[in-house]
From TrEMBL:
It comes from the Eukaryota. Residues 35-389 form the Glycoside hydrolase family domain. This is cellulase. The keyword Signal applies. Residues 1-31 form the signal peptide. Belongs to the glycosyl hydrolase 9 (cellulase E) family. One of its GO terms (biological process) is cellulose catabolic process. Keywords: Carbohydrate metabolism, Cellulose degradation, Glycosidase, Hydrolase, Polysaccharide degradation, Signal. Its EC number is 3.2.1.4. Gene3D superfamilies: 1.50.10.10.
Length: 390
């Protein structure tokens, strides 16, 4: 049997069509493309990736229960969650990032999702239920289930898999601030989604996010150093853990409104390199997302102490706009954003998502982005994002 190819960036690829669908959901059929249907199928993809005991309302009927003993070798229950890409490994780092982005999508665009909103909320909860299990023990985060090498050597349905279900964790002696910081961000963002839908569950998510973030910050280090042989080259963190600490603090600030996180962000802005590589956004690099997320408060006139983050966000936007400055992002002859390396579409859609989010924030504040001698209006940002779709 031919070995299974390495797959990047995993379940995050589900966000590609999902993000595109959000762009045009208010105009569901354009140029013969039905984006309403694309949104439905994007969310359905997550149900196809479910691990564990499936619920009665499972819509992907050809899937069955699987991996019902995950975690048993370590004496913990790690059933549930999502498989990654076309394999049967559960990678905690990209799963948590996917959860954060799904939650952010609901927070900012849920009103546009129509009947798919309830399914998107379920997709978030399927992941957060698993992340709660993975963080139940204080001072420990279980970050992966399954041996990637043996798994990638064998194509098989999760219902039939007989590959190793090795459990990997980070702890005080083997830190992983990157994956722990992202997990805290996911739990905090999801707590906002459930604040009115299920207040008790929302409080559980937020309290766990606080605990996991404290662990990530106190025991600093990259999980790809602690668990290098298991997570590299699959989800090796090459950009450092600093951005995940700021990202986690930003979501905790948004979810809790506690001054301690505002002070943490301001104090650590330079130390944790908030302005680095600002034209990147993905499971391994959160800098642009941090700046856009925090800038909303500045644009709403509520947080002048975050002004430097807005300046970073403006610089990020200008770096994407052809003809306004000297963009750091290349474009194909047809106008598609292009970044070197594999899985270009993850960059296209994640950057498009930020363009749309920032466009909305600017519109509500009646602002534009200053780019040297020119400026970029909210309409221009939205136009560029739509060009990536049609």
């Amino acid at each position: 049997m031919a070995p299974k190819p390495l797959t990047f960036p995993g379940i995050f690829s589900a966000l590609l069509a999902f993000s595109f669908s959000l762009l045009l959901f208010c105009h569901p059929i354009i140029g013969g493309h039905n984006y309403h249907d694309a949104l439905r199928k994007s969310i359905l993809f997550f149900e196809g990736q479910r691990s564990g005991r499936l619920p009665p309302d499972q819509r992907v009927k050809w899937r069955r229960d699987s991996a019902l003993h995950d975690g048993s070798t370590a004496g913990v229950d790690l059933t549930g969650g999502y498989y990654d890409a076309g394999d049967n490994v559960k990678f905690g780092f990209p799963m948590a990032f996917t959860t954060t982005l799904l939650a952010w999508s609901i927070i900012d665009f849920g009103r546009n999702m129509g009947p798919e909103l309830k399914n998107t909320v379920k997709a978030v909860k399927w992941s957060t239920d698993y992340l709660l299990k993975a963080t139940e023990k204080p001072g420990v985060v279980y970050v992966q289930v399954g041996d990637a090498y043996s798994d990638h050597s064998c194509w098989e349905r999760p219902e039939d898999m007989d590959t190793l279900r090795t459990v990997y964790k980070i702890d005080n002696a083997h830190p992983g601030s990157d994956v722990a910081g992202e997990t805290a961000a996911a739990l905090a963002a999801a707590s906002i989604v459930f604040r009115k839908r299920d207040p008790a569950y929302s409080r559980l998510l937020l309290n766990r996010a606080i605990r996991v973030f404290n662990f990530a910050d106190k025991h600093r280090g990259a999980y790809s150093s602690s668990l290098h042989s298991a997570v590299c080259p699959f989800y090796c963190d090459v950009n450092g853990y600093q951005d995940e600490l700021l990202w986690g603090a930003a979501w905790l600030h948004k979810a809790s409104r506690k001054r301690v996180y505002r002070e943490y962000i301001v104090k650590n802005e330079v130390v944790l390199r908030a302005g680095d590589t600002i034209n990147e956004f993905g499971w391994d690099n959160k800098h642009a997302g941090i700046n856009v997320l925090i800038s909303k408060e500045v644009l709403m006139g509520k947080a002048d102490y975050f002004e430097s983050f807005k300046q970073n966000a403006d610089g990020f936007i200008c770096s994407l706009l052809p003809g306004i400055s000297h963009p750091q992002v290349q474009y194909s002859p047809g106008g598609l954003m292009f970044k070197t390396g594999g899985s270009n579409m993850q960059h296209v859609t994640s950057l498009s998502f930020l363009l749309l989010a920032y466009s909305n924030y600017l519109s509500h504040a009646n602002k534009v982005v200053p780019c040297g001698e020119s400026s970029a209006s909210p309409a221009l940002l939205k136009h560029l994002a739509k060009r990536q779709v049609v």
